Amino acid sequence: MARPILRFLVGLSVVFVLCSTTASAQSALRDAEIEQFLEDYSRPIFEAAGLPAESVGIHLIGDPTLNAFVANGLNMYIFTGLITAADVPNQLVGVIAHETGHMAGGHLQRSEEAIKAATRPMMLSMVLGTVAILAGAPDAGIGIVTLGQQIGTANILSYSRGQESSADQAALTYLEKLEISGQGVIDFFRKLRNEQLITYNKVNPYYQTHPLANARMSSMEKRVSESPFKDGKDSEAEILRLKMIQAKIHGFVQPSQVTMRQYPLSDRSAPARYARAVAYYRGADLPKALKEIDGLIEEQPRNPFFQELKGQMLFEHGKIRESIAPHKFSTELAPQYALLKINHARSLVALEETTTTEEAIEILKTALNMERENIFGWTELARAYSTVGRDDLASLATAEAYFNAGVLHEAHRFATRARKLLPEQSTEWRQATDIIQATVADAERYRRKNPGGRRG
Q: Are residue 92 and residue 193 in the same domain, yes or no?
């Protein structure tokens, strides 16, 4: 049974990649270096806002749009386009502080209430307007409907403007607590407004959800001008770190030829070489990619993210055994990152050797204790268990992968299969039981909708 499960897991990996992508081709990205960068700047702001910083999720969205938003409770979503648009870290910090203001102010929940309230005159106007039309007064009926729509829209926009102003002031308060200049907030919104004027026929999503009034800008400018921290600047090291992050993003999300034009060979800066390393690797030119990344490693031999990238390059170009050393070194340099451990384990599993697979299993178990919701980690653990013939644990890990991906009927199916194979009352048996109990209702709903589908 091991080989069929192994073949199934290959397809499963593709499913999870597709599940992470929305209809508009926006995808959730994971990158330890970028995530650490965002956390370093956001955690102090969360704490200044009185939020439980360890409970706030920061999610990276791979999309060139200049956008950010909060949703689903304590979750902030930052688009790669927002990061690459920032001239200095202070601008990005300003946006994070603004979004934190929405989060701390409970604006998401209140917006839903405001929308419900605003739709009442809309619905009433539609009813009255329809009655008027049926009664033989179509012009009056249409007028009633239009008036109701205008009142409802005005109510929503008025509430939105109030939230935006509140978030502005909250952001400046957090930054003042941290003795950080609020100029970045103003500079970012000015950049956004300029972009809007240049591309007037394309409405930026951030501009739509964060309407910028002149009164807001004036209020922020006045407060920042009176702050004792108004002239604070980012250090050269902080700006370089941002440029390195931007280069990495450009290398991964842009077509390689675009990146090469943006970072020509004449540019010998570290960010340019970082971007070209990624562009060459994605463009299937491994020798040039390795030359660029090896040059960076020579200058910073203890940079875990350079080591990780080299391992990724080698692995994805079929040089699996050679990829293990840099991946392993990256985990030794930065053992706090589950993502680096998972990449290291993936290389070990890909060799399909008993010794390296057993090593990978232990690494993956450690990584998943750090990140229980890492779908890719569970998928790799399932693959590893399948390789060594542990079909019971492979099914359990697959159930965990599906559970964390939100495909609950499949989680139920694989957990049921695992429990049949596991020793009763063992830790793993109880783990499978927990998944079964948590997904039984979803599995039953799925069976009712798909009576001819697969069972356990």
A: yes
Strand partners, 21: 27
Pair 66, 206: CB distance under 8 Å: yes
The tens digit of pLDDT for each residue in 342-384 reads 999 999 999 999 999 999 999 999 999 999 999 999 999 999 9
CA distance 226 to 308: 45
Question: What pLDDT does residue 152 have?
Answer: 41
Cβ neighbour number for residue 205 with a 10 Å cutoff: 15
Evaluate whether residue 168 is within a structural domain. yes
Cβ-defined contacts of 365-368 (< 8 Å, 24+)? 366/341, 367/338, 367/339, 367/341, 367/342, 368/338
Band of pLDDT at residue 207, cut at 50, 70 and 90: low
**Kindly report the CA angle at 6 between 419 and 387, in degrees rounded to 5?**
80
CATH number for the domain spanning 203: value is 3.30.2010.10
Confidence at residue 300, expressed as pLDDT on a 0 to 100 scale: 97
Tens digits of residue pLDDT in 393-418: 999 999 999 999 999 999 999 999 99
* Residue after which a domain boundary falls, among 360, 383, 406: 383
CA distances from 60 to 82, 142, 180, 204, 425 (A): 10, 45, 24, 18, 40
Q: Is 444 among the domain residues?
A: yes
Question: Which residues have C-beta within 8 Å of that of residue 109, sequence separation ≥ 6?
Answer: none
Q: Are 90 and 38 in contact (CB under 8 A)?
A: no
Note if the pTM is more than 0.90.
no
Encoded tokens for 320: 């699996």
Domain count, the chain: 4
Same domain, 207 and 246: no
359 and 375 in a common domain: yes
**Domain range spanning residue 94?**
31-110+154-225
Beta strands per DSSP E along 344-402: none
- Reported in sequence order, the residue ranges of 68-219 that DSSP labels E, i.e. its strands, are 68-70, 75-79
Phi, psi of 370 (to 5 degrees): -85, -35
